[in-house]
Design a protein that fits this description.
The protein contains 15 helices and 12 strands. The protein is α/β, with parallel strands linked by helices and about 350 residues long. The strands form 3 sheets. It has an 8-stranded parallel sheet with strand order 4-11-10-9-8-7-6-5. A two-stranded antiparallel sheet has the order 1-12. A hairpin with a 2-residue loop joins strand 2 and strand 3. The site of ligand FNR has 28 residues, from helix 1, strand 7 and helix 12.
């Protein structure tokens, strides 16, 4: 099977396996505020992703390119919706275009349709610093995502079987490319130990790519004769990943993704410490079901609903939302407790006022 055919299968299987609400975000509850002292029009949702400024805390996460006309059309629509909504967009892995230059157009279309927007290049951790520079140049990228997808590769019939040297290559890339490097998971989550190594290697941000949304073990299992279903439930949920990384690295930049479907998921992810949030599967489904206009409308509604949530919480800025108190229950509470994290750092955030 060619790489291009595999890309097309990923899109179809991602849509058919869909998104399960297993992100742990249902274990998170905001503490209701009766006196928010704020008007919706005062809310400012602009954010910083490390040194990058974005007018939106939501972006379209990496999906595609390199699969001929279908992926060209998808990237074209994603780029147009991103431009109109004013949100950043990541392309899918560009390795196919580095191997086969005829696939470059399926990525270049993104910059053509969205000349001034924030665009993230994307490669896997097998990439070298030279690959990274070429991928960034190909689309005039503002940042580079390096994805870590060990579980996907091991379940993929034709996938990689050696994962040696990835951290070293990431370190080289971080020191040699001219744009910030975001290291991301793809739906299996990230531990504080892994995040620590990546920050130390020079990653400007980690995107925790948590468990609970698009599931690449299920997707690759659909491409196998003998299924390895035990990897279908493998990973660290989005909520648990965010909370455990934030507790160890309070000052480092963290991006949330993995199963985010609506404004409340986004708000909770930010309150757990993310400065920006990515959605892949949910936006792919919106595009497939309702076309480019439907996708644009969905993005705009989520941004508007996020402002509503911020208003009722009295959070004028993203930085205020990052400090909103929340209570963590259930499996996420259990996970965090077992990992030595005191969840009251989230529930008791306000300095007590003297009456
Ligand atoms: C992806 N994802 C992905 N990630 C990446 O870094 N490079 C890639 O090429 C791809 N390809 C890809 C194809 C398709 C069809 C989907 C749906 C997703 C992973 C994506 O960026 C994200 O990390 C996961 O999908 C989890 O987020 P969601 O989908 O639950 O929001």
């Amino acid at each position: 099977m060619t790489r291009a055919e595999r890309k097309r299968q990923h899109i179809n299987h991602a849509l058919s396996t869909g998104q399960k609400r297993e992100t742990g975000l249902d274990d998170i509850t905001f503490v209701h505020v009766s006196l928010p002292d704020l008007a919706l029009e005062q809310v400012d949702i602009s954010t910083k992703i490390g040194e990058l400024s974005s007018s939106s805390p939501i972006f379209i996460n990496a999906m595609t390119g390199g699969g001929g006309q279908l992926t060209y059309e998808i990237n074209k629509s994603l780029a147009r919706a991103a431009r109109q909504a004013g949100i950043p967009l990541a392309v899918g892995s560009q390795m196919s275009a580095l191997k086969d230059p005829s696939e470059r157009v399926s990525y270049e279309i993104v910059r053509k349709e969205n000349p001034n927007g924030l665009i993230f290049a994307n490669l896997g951790s097998e990439a070298t610093a030279d690959h990274a520079k070429e991928a960034v140049d190909m689309i005039g990228a503002d940042a580079l995502q390096i994805h870590l997808n060990v579980i996907q590769e091991i379940v993929m019939p034709e996938g990689d079987r050696s994962f040696s040297g990835a951290l070293n290559r990431i370190e080289q890339i971080c020191s040699q490319v001219s744009v910030p490097v975001i290291v991301k998971e793809v739906g299996f989550g990230m531990s504080k130990e892994s995040a620590g190594k990546l920050y130390e290697a020079g990653a400007a941000a980690v995107d925790i790519g948590g468990y609970g949304g698009t599931n690449f073990s299920k997707i690759e299992n659909l491409r196998r004769q003998r299924q390895i279903t035990f990897f279908d439930s493998w990973g660290i949920s989005t909520a648990a990943s965010l909370a455990e990384i934030r507790s160890s690295f309070p000052a480092s930049t963290m991006i949330a993704s993995g199963g985010l479907q609506d404004a409340l998921d986004v708000a909770k992810a930010i309150a757990l410490g993310a400065s920006c949030t990515g959605m892949a599967g949910h936006f792919l489904k919106a595009l497939t079901d309702s076309g480019e206009e439907g996708l644009l409308e969905e993005i705009q509604l989520i941004l508007e609903e996020l402002k509503m949530i911020m208003t009722v919480l009295g959070a004028r800025t993203i930085s205020d939302l990052q400090k909103a108190p929340l209570v963590i229950k259930g499996e996420t509470h259990h996970w965090l407790t077992e990992r030595g994290i005191d969840t009251s750092s989230y529930s008791v955030r306000l300095k007590p006022k003297t009456l």
